[in-house]
Amino acid sequence: MTRISGETALGLAWFIALFASLGVLFIGEVLGQTPCVLCWFQRAFMFPLAIILGLGLWWQDRKVSRYGIALALGGAAVALWHMGLYVGVIPERIQPCTATGPSCTDDNQLIFGIPIPLLALAAFTLIAALSALSLNETQE
Length: 140
Known about the structure:
Blueprint: H1 6-30, H2 37-58, H3 65-87, E1 110-111, E2 114-115, H4 116-139
Antiparallel strand pairs: 1-2
Helix pairs in contact: 1-2, 1-4, 2-3, 3-4
């Protein structure tokens, strides 16, 4: 079985963070879909990931993965809560979505039939796992 190197893992984590950041900017700025409050909180975790992990690659500092893990876990927690509200596991109406603002339950909040909160949760989970893999190899 081929083992992924720490630098490759960090590069993949950065690519996912960059792609997710550019994707939500496209959705908001080009498609004109205003994010709800929970989406904003998730962006607050994702945008710095693209910058911090990118700088870690540039400076060849894989210890930056520690910050990647922390930010990704914080973002994943918000995304998990958001997903719980979306599917109804958490017995509340999605509070951050106002009557005049965006609704996370609309069909326009799906990308290829997948809800945006689920995509965010998957991205944060992958970034955390890849950052941990990169950090683990640094310590060996």
